[in-house]
């Protein structure tokens, strides 16, 4: 599971399909907004860099990572033309068990939404022990999980279109 040797923004650009035909939504949590703002910027820029048209990208904000499941459900219900939804959040370990409940809920929740609609719903949620780990993975020394989520969305949208 360790990302010590893996930079989240390090992928082969030649193997990423062209995103020109795809419509993709991004749901971003407002908790730890400095971090999730950087995740969002990374995801948006990476989608556009790989051909997704700005007018084919829908962006919404939700209060916290717990709400990402509901957002993905609403987006896929209202926008049936979507090819993928990217969920971005940052959950940082605290003194209580809140961390475990939120991480479990969002991981299971977005998995279920993806299966419900047979559409890719991407887990772009940082789950870290402290703020520094989150900074390192949102445009810092370990890359940007937003970039990784965008590349995953394009690859899964391509799979959906071609499988
Ligand atoms: C309540 C809470 C806490 C303690 N920590 C985080 C966090 O680290 N990251 C995050 O995205 N959200 C957190 N939240 C808010 C919950 O996700 C959710 O918004 C509230 O419990 C309301 O449902």
Keywords:
single chain; 163 residues; alpha/beta; Rossmann fold; four-stranded parallel beta sheet; 5 helices; 6 strands; globular; binds ligand DLZ
Task: Describe what you observe in this structure.
- This protein has 163 residues and is an alpha/beta fold.
- Strands 2-1-3-4 form a 4-stranded parallel sheet, sandwiched between helices.
- Helices cover 44% and strands 21% of the residues.
- The radius of gyration is 15 Å and the shape is globular.
- It has 5 helices and 6 strands.
- The two termini are 28 Å apart.
- Bound molecules: ligand DLZ.
- Residues 29, 31-32, 63-67, 89-92, 94, 98, 102 line the site of ligand DLZ.
SSE layout:
Blueprint lengths: L23 E6 L3 H17 L7 E6 L5 H11 L5 E9 L5 H20 L3 E8 L2 H6 L1 E3 L2 E2 H18 L1
Parallel strand pairs: 1-2, 1-3, 3-4
Antiparallel strand pairs: 5-6
Helix pairs in contact: 1-5, 2-3
The protein binds ligand DLZ.
The secondary-structure class comes to alpha/beta
Count of structural domains: 1
Q: What is the highest CATH level, the class?
A: Alpha Beta
Strand order of the largest sheet: 2-1-3-4
Summarize the structure.
The chain has 163 residues and is α/β, with parallel strands linked by helices. The protein has one domain: Lumazine/riboflavin synthase (Rossmann fold).
